[in-house]
Automatic annotation (TrEMBL):
Keywords of this entry: DNA-binding, Transcription, Transcription regulation
Name of this chain's protein: HTH arsR-type domain-containing protein
SUPFAM superfamilies (alphabetical): Winged helix' DNA-binding domain (SSF46785)
Domain spans labelled HTH arsR-type: 273-365
Length: 365
């Protein structure tokens, strides 16, 4: 059983027309809601359970009342309506919350109610059916939502103020300090940059495999997402797929429809769990321990180049440059791309994975 996402004929013409459908989204607010999901249900999030248990001991009792009260906002996927259907993107959490505040003040409360009731319907009828309870959601008990829905219907402005105060309290008590200590901004931006470069170079179909998510694959010109129910989503010419990486989402994978397509909220921590072993790390740093190879890496970070061009810039013979490139390539630090009769070298993402802003630290001489 799966969700089948069908693309229109135009999108399927070439790699480029398909790639145009894909966008990455950086959203600290999404991470805030996803971390609240873990606090609501830490049992199913073993990778973060020590963090959740520690935080639970430090939070006041009234916080957990609010956590339950607002649970529909993050119990499953976060409803795209809370992001104003991604009409605007923000660069930081403060901006996202201001946009949320403005949206709540301007929108009809019935739109919020409709979105949350849809969450309940999906949860009860398809998202967590018997099969899912035996797998990903074993032991999960949906929270009661009557109070929130009733209050939204009777006094939405009071609910919105309560929600924004709850978010602000959580930021002050937990989230902002955790965001800094775990370097989550760098984590998410690095993930987006890496996958965007891969998407540009190899296209969307290969990106699906590169994300290393077992439940997503490409089959007969359809994107297949394994779920414990059947659904088909037809994307129009105007629709997009928004890929939203998350530090907190494992073991889940959330797919939500929104006004302009679908969002795919995926685990970006999977490639971090099996980090480079010590022996390979030694190999990498040995390759970087020579000033000539550092100069080559710096030059290639500015523009891909051939062996001959590097030799001219560095005033070295092609054989000497070729020797250094061979060592860098063996360490996985550079990759090649053939263009016509030329072979271009450019850096892989490994250095920036290990040392963010590595190239900015190197002087240009």
């Amino acid at each position: 059983m799966a969700i089948k996402i069908k693309f229109n004929d135009y999108a399927l013409q070439t790699n480029e027309t398909l790639t145009q459908k894909i966008q990455f989204v950086y959203s600290p607010l999404n991470e805030l809601f996803r971390s609240l999901h873990i606090l609501l249900n830490p049992r199913h999030h073993g990778m973060h359970i020590s963090w959740a248990l520690d935080v639970q001991q430090r939070l006041p009792h009234h916080f957990f009342d609010d956590l339950q009260y607002f649970s529909l906002f993050y119990e499953l996927g976060v409803p795209p309506i809370l992001f104003n259907n991604f009409e605007r993107f923000s660069s930081n959490l403060d901006e996202e919350i201001e946009q949320l505040k403005s949206y709540l003040l301007e929108t009809n409360a019935q739109n919020i109610l409709f979105s949350l009731k849809k969450v309940i319907t999906n949860r009860d009828n398809q998202f967590i059916p018997t099969l899912a309870k035996n797998l990903e959601w074993q032991g999960f008990s949906p929270s009661s939502s009557n109070d929130l829905l009733t209050d939204l219907n009777n006094n939405p402005q009071r609910v919105y103020t309560h929600l924004l105060n709850f978010i602000n309290d959580y930021r002050e008590l937990v989230f902002d300090s955790m965001w800094q200590s775990k370097h989550l901004e760098q984590f998410l931006l690095t993930e987006i940059k890496q996958q965007s470069l891969y998407l540009a170079q190899y296209g969307f179909v290969k990106l699906i495999n590169h994300l290393e998510i077992d439940r997503i694959y490409w089959q007969q010109e359809n994107l297949i997402i394994i779920k414990p129910f059947e659904e088909t989503i037809n994307l129009s010419n105007q629709d997009t797929i928004l890929l939203i990486p998350s530090y907190f989402i494992w073991p889940h994978l959330f797919v939500d429809e929104f006004q302009h397509g679908i969002t795919l909220n995926y685990d970006a921590l999977n490639r971090q769990r099996d980090k480079i072993d010590a022996q390979y790390l030694t190999h990498v740093f040995n390759a970087l321990s020579d000033i000539v190879r550092l100069k080559i890496m710096k030059y290639l970070s500015d523009q891909p180049s051939t062996t001959q061009a590097l030799g001219q810039v560095l005033m070295m013979s092609e054989s000497t440059v070729s020797h250094h490139l061979k060592l860098l390539k063996a360490a996985g630090l550079v990759i090649t791309q053939k263009k016509g009769k030329f072979v271009l070298y450019h850096p892989s993402t490994i250095v920036n994975d290990l040392i963010p802003d590595f190239y900015q630290l190197l002087k240009n001489n």
